[in-house]
């Protein structure tokens, strides 16, 4: 696994282990709440307004980003396979072309040799 793959796996594990969302922020009280909890459990307390909003949105943003990374990684892998197939086809085409050029040159030499013998 690459460092990025390891890091994404760690982020996904933390996201899956976190209190289920969605969360909401109560900026006046500097808290982030889990509204799915029966007793409206505070997820974070005594934080600044911007941090409060960031944390509240991260519960849904992180899984969204991870899913997007998975989708883009799959698309990249598909495109890599297509590129490899195209490379193989081009290499095969070049091999045929090289044989054709070689055969054409041989015919030119034979033709020249025949003409020279006829003179």
Short description:
The protein has 119 residues and is mainly α. The chain contains two helices and three strands, in the order αβββα.
Q: What structural category characterises the helix and strand content?
A: mainly alpha
Query: Ends: how far apart?
Result: 72 Å
Q: How would you spell out the order of helices and strands?
A: HEEEH
Principal-axis shape equals rod-shaped
Proportion of residues in β-strands: 5-15%
What is the count of distinct domains? 1
Can you list the strand order of the major beta sheet? 1-2-3
Helix content: over 70%
Kindly provide the radius of gyration, computed on alpha-carbon positions and rounded to a whole number of angstroms. 32 Å
Q: Summarize the biggest pleated sheet.
A: 3 strands, antiparallel
Number of strands: 3
Low-confidence stretches: none
Mean pLDDT: 82
What's the total helix number? 2
Structure description:
By secondary structure, the protein is mainly α. The protein has one domain (3-118). 71% of the residues lie in helices and 10% in strands. It has two helices and three strands. The protein has helices at 3-17, 49-118; strands spanning 23-26, 31-34, 42-45. It has a three-stranded antiparallel beta sheet, with helices on one face. The longest helix is centred in the last third of the chain and has 70 residues, at 49-118. It is rod-shaped, with a radius of gyration of 32 Å. The mean pLDDT is 82.
């Amino acid at each position: 696994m690459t460092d990025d793959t390891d890091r994404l796996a760690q982020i996904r594990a933390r996201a899956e282990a976190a209190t289920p969302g969605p969360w909401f922020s109560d900026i006046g009280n500097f808290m982030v709440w889990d509204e799915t909890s029966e007793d409206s459990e505070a997820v974070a307390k005594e934080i600044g307004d911007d941090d409060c909003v960031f944390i509240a949105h991260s519960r849904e943003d992180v899984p969204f980003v991870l899913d997007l990374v998975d989708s883009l990684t799959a698309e990249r892998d598909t495109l890599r396979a297509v590129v490899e197939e195209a490379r193989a086809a081009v290499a095969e085409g070049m091999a045929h072309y090289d044989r054709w050029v070689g055969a054409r040159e041989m015919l030119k030499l034979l033709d020249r040799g025949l003409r020279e013998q006829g003179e």
